[in-house]
Amino acid sequence: MSELRSTDNPKSSQTAAADNKEKAAETPAKPQQEEEEVDIDLEAPETEKAALAIQNQFRRFQKKKK
């Protein structure tokens, strides 16, 4: 397996990346989707509890990340 990697031409991977960029540029942009109207009661106690739980998990994640 390592032999295959050593024989690869480094320029070939750069060429593939350049081709991908060209294809991405040629692809037409998708029309913007209309925003969905979300009917959530932001004052509901369940919503507040859920928001606090999400915020706590995010804070723990940030502390772990450091």
From TrEMBL:
Annotated region (Disordered), positions in chain: 1-47
Record's compositionally biased regions (Acidic residues): 34-45
Superkingdom: Eukaryota
Family label: Belongs to the PCP4 family.
Name used for this protein in its record: Purkinje cell protein 4
